[in-house]
Write a structure and sequence with these properties.
The chain is mostly helical. It has 15 helices and 2 strands.
């Protein structure tokens, strides 16, 4: 059977020469040459951890940071005695490449679970504090850039761009931008779906302001802190209750009907139809769900002709086509 190179013992003289040539190339800043010599040692499983540390340095000097990180991780797993030395190099690479959040997350875990040597503790704490500071500054800068893009897109951008930026920003605080965003709730040209997303962002962040919202030619003054989420609203809950028999008979159909109801109410939020229309809307939601699923299941509530139900059903279909086709 043919032996692999790792099964062949390297002559001591050759090994010593490759190590010497590799270290000499490193000292002379011939980093690519140094890597070639070290690679030869690795092929025969003859590269010491000291030599591999030199290879990490070469990668860093050549800005090959991904390779340096991979090798650091490998040595951290294999060389317990020098774990903190490699961890220090690893953290330094992350800091050099502005991966501040990675540093904070990693050191949070290490500080909580590990007893580290005093030699490294102070250095790691300094690195941790700096990384936390720079990460917060980085996040603030990114938010400023994104909110600027978002405000611009609300005036001139397309729906997809508005929705993408809003999805990113909803993870951040809205407080500094409330005054900038409020006028868009009454903008006749802004898509109602975007207005709902903005309202939900305000609601999630507990914004306590009276806001005038325009949708479909109607105006309403709301305060997000007093609002409920779309499906927690009284109208939604009463409509769902009207479909309780469907839930017992066919849970899949029931969930599909709830999705249709959610989309219908989401587009109109914070407006809702009159509560007297709940039976008709429940029937329309169920009928549309049966159509979408191509099911012939019979329900008593759908047996007689209901003009209001059919009108609501057509409105739901139109809203889904007009707005949610853009999200998809």
């Amino acid at each position: 059977m043919k032996k692999g190179r790792q099964d062949i013992v390297m002559f001591p003289g050759w090994k010593k020469k490759l190590e010497s040539d590799g270290l000499e190339a490193l000292k002379e800043k011939r980093y690519e040459d140094a890597i070639l010599h070290i690679n030869q040692l690795e092929q025969y499983d003859a590269a010491s951890n000291e030599i591999l540390t030199g290879k990490i340095i070469c990668y860093i000097e050549l800005s090959q940071y991904d390779d340096a990180i991979r090798l650091c991780r490998k040595l951290m797993k294999e060389d317990d005695d020098n774990y903190y030395k490699y961890l220090h190099i690893y953290l330094t690479i992350l800091f050099q490449t502005s991966q501040y959040n990675e540093i904070v997350d990693l050191l949070d875990e290490i500080f909580e679970n590990e007893e580290m040597p005093h030699t490294y503790r102070q250095q790691f704490w300094q690195l941790y504090d700096l990384s936390k500071k720079f990460y917060q500054e980085q996040a603030e800068t990114n938010t400023q850039d994104e909110i600027g893009q978002f405000l611009s897109s609300l005036e001139t951008g397309n729906f997809q761009e508005q929705w993408r930026l809003l999805s990113l920003l909803r993870k951040r605080t809205v407080t500094p931008y409330v005054n900038d965003l409020i006028p868009f709730f009454s903008d006749l040209n802004l898509n109602p779906v975007i207005k709902t997303g903005l309202l939900q962002w305000f609601w999630e962040q507990k914004v306590d302001r009276n806001i005038e919202v325009e949708k479909f030619g109607e105006l309403k003054i709301v305060n997000p802190i007093h609002m409920k989420d779309v499906m927690d609203d009284t109208f939604a809950q009463q409509t769902i209750y009207y479909l309780r028999d469907v839930e017992q008979n066919d849970p899949t159909l029931y969930e599909f009907a709830k999705q249709i109801l959610f989309r219908f109410l989401y587009v109109q939020y914070p407006f809702t139809p009159d509560e007297s229309e709940i039976p008709n809307i429940a029937e329309a939601v169920l009928s549309l769900a049966l159509d979408y699923l191509q099911m012939d299941t019979q329900y008593d509530m759908l047996q007689s002709h209901n003009q209001s139900r059919e009108q609501w059903k057509e409105e739901m279909k139109e809203l889904e086509r007009k707005y949610f086709s853009q999200i998809e």
